[in-house]
Each structure stands twice: as structure tokens, then as C-alpha cells.
Amino acid sequence: MKNRLLFILAGAGALVGLLSAVYFGIERKPLAPVFNPSANPYSAGIYANGILQSDQANGTNIALYPEVPGTVLQIPVAEGQRVTRGDILMVLDGSVQQATAEQLHAQAEAAQAALAQLKAEPRPESLAVVSAQVDVAQATLKMNTDTLNKLEGIAKTDPGLISRDQLDNAANAVRVAAAALAVARKQYELTKAGAWKYDVQNQTQQYFALQKAYQAAAAQLEKYTLRAPVDGTVLSIQTAVGSYVSVQGTYDPISGANGPLILMGGGAADQLSVRCYIDEILIQRLALTPSTPARLFIRGTDVSIPLQYVRVQPYVSPKIQLSSERTERVDLRVLPVIFRLTKPSGVQLYPGQLVDVYIESPAPVSKH
């Protein structure tokens, strides 16, 4: 009985194995591709990887970093929004810097007021006082001179009535009064002359230094407001209100690296450019002119767009541009070529999008 059961199980296992072999051996039709790869539209066209970017004279996009650290208070723009040069993109907390600027402004105004005071000298009131002091000194001298003359006249008439000590005291009083008058007149001239030119120069330099310090502080305060450097489009905002940012940008918790606060694209809204990377093996086949035909193919669609040749970036470098990874085919070197395109209506194209590009080139000449 036991042996019979074993034979039955063995037969069932063999049958299952045979059926499995037959089932998995049936040839099935391959699945249709999600989209048909783009075909070369030219008889001798050169293929290149391309990446869409903003249409601008240099660079790929505009990366905006803050020049000062701070906490983000406002972000009055949104991703995809068109902005013009000078528009406010982001505002950082600059309250401490604002207080510093206001303090320096007040000090500069105080120095300016002191300078104006020096330049306005003499005050009429001060000049009137020293003028009156001159008059008093003149009157005192006249009184003492008259007293001395009277004593000398009496002494000549009757020497016994006036002592020598009285005459000496009267003469000394005249000399003191004359000296006092001379001092009063010098003081009048000094007051009338106004502030000393060196005092004016010193105060002028103090005001100039404080004014420059205030201007520097105000310029530093302006850096807490990020403005659009050119007309363009806000492509990406990498931070949020309340986040702290530094001059290295903002921290990305996903990548663990710092990046720009805002990424902008320059140029017109309907204009894009595509940066193609030509394999160094194909460089000799390039014959680029302003009329060189080239077409862009959008991956996953049958849409193709004509391109206009712009320029060559004359530097062959390792092919790391598409992923920014240093391990990406560093044995392959490529030449960047830039084309321009007008964005068709109804077609979704965005900077950073990978595309296929074909460039017409002369047919290779065979050498025997």
C-alpha cells in the first residue's frame, strides 16, 4: 500500500513537470513598445542626447543664492511665474541690519548738523557779545587813562597831594585796561572769523565717514531682498517661508547638499534652447552653419520640432552633464552644441527635459 502511494506521487510529480515544461515552452509574442523610437530624418544625420534649457546667452539657468544669511520672511512669486528685472523674489529677515543702518543714519545726520553749525559761525548773538566786550574794554581804558591824567595834573600842581604809589597804580590800571582791550579786540576778530578751517575739515571727514558707513549698511540691508536679475521665468523655488538660509544656499534634506534658493530661466517665454552633446567620434562629421537642418524629437511622442543653430561651446569634456554624476561614462567625451527652438502651442516642454536630436551632416567620404 505504501509503495503504491509513492508511485502515484512520483507519477503526479512527473506529470506536473511535463505540463510546466510545455506551458513555459510556448513562444509568446513580444509586448509592443510603449512608444516608437524616433527615426533619423536625415540620410547622414548625427544623433545626440539633448537637454532643454532657458534661451540665454550664457549658462543653462540662473541660480540665485543670497549674499547674506537669514530667515525667509516672504516669497511673493510662484514657480512658473514670469518676472521682470527688479521684481522681488524673496525677502529675508534683516531687522538687525535695519537697526544698524538706522543708527548710522542718525549719527551721520548729527555729524552733518555739527558741520552746518561750524559753517554757520559766527552766530550774530556771539558776535554781539564780543563786540560789547570790546566797548566795555574801551570804556575801561578811557576811564583809567582819564584818572591817570588827572592824578598827573594834580601832582604837577602840588606834588605833595599825590603819592608816587597812587601814580604807579593808576599807570598800571591803564596798562591792564589796554591789554584787556587788545584781548577783547582779538576775541572779536576770532569770533568774526568763524570756525577754524581745520575744525571744518575734521568735521567734514567725520560726516563723510559716517555717511559712507550708512550707505554701506543700507546697501547691505538691500541684500536681504532678492530681486530678479533679468526678465525670465521662475523655474524652481527650493525653500519656504520660515526656513533659515545661508550664503551657500538652502539645505536639501533629500540630497544632503546645499542648492540655490531660486532657479530662474532667462529669455522669452516661448523660446527655449537645447544643449546637445555630440560624441567626440562624430565631431569630424559636423558642418554647422546658421542654416544647418536639425530636429528635436520629444521622447514618448511622435512630435518633432525644427531647431536653429546658435553656437558651439568649444570645449570637449567628459559626459557627465546629463546626470551630474562623476561615474557616468567618464570614458566618453562630448562636444556641447546649442540650438534654439520656438515652443509650439499645445506641446509640453520644460527646461531640464531630455530629448533626442538629429543634426544633418555631409555623407562620410570613403577613402580607398
Helices and strands, with pairings:
Blueprint: H1 2-24, E1 46-54, E2 62-64, E3 70-74, E4 82-83, E5 88-92, H2 95-120, H3 124-157, H4 164-193, H5 197-222, E6 225-227, E7 232-237, E8 244-245, E9 250-252, E10 257-259, E11 262-266, E12 271-279, E13 294-297, E14 304-306, E15 308-312, E16 317-318, E17 333-342, E18 354-359
Antiparallel strand pairs: 1-12, 1-18, 2-11, 3-5, 3-8, 4-7, 5-6, 7-11, 9-10, 12-17, 13-14, 13-18, 15-17, 16-17
Helix pairs in contact: 2-5, 3-4
List keywords for this structure.
5 helices, Elongation Factor Tu (Ef-tu), domain 3, 8-stranded antiparallel β-sheet, OB fold (Dihydrolipoamide Acetyltransferase, E2P), 368 residues, 38% helix, alpha+beta, 4-stranded antiparallel β-sheet, elongated, 18 strands
3D structure, described in words:
The radius of gyration is 47 Å and the shape is elongated. The longest helix is centred in the middle third of the chain and has 34 residues. Among the domains are: 102 residues, Efflux pump adaptor protein, beta barrel domain (Elongation Factor Tu (Ef-tu), domain 3); 72 residues, RNA polymerase II/Efflux pump adaptor protein, barrel-sandwich hybrid domain (OB fold (Dihydrolipoamide Acetyltransferase, E2P), Beta Barrel), CATH 2.40.50. Strands 1, 12, 13, 14, 15, 16, 17 and 18 form an eight-stranded antiparallel β-sheet that branches. It has five helices and 18 strands. By secondary structure, the chain is of the alpha+beta class.
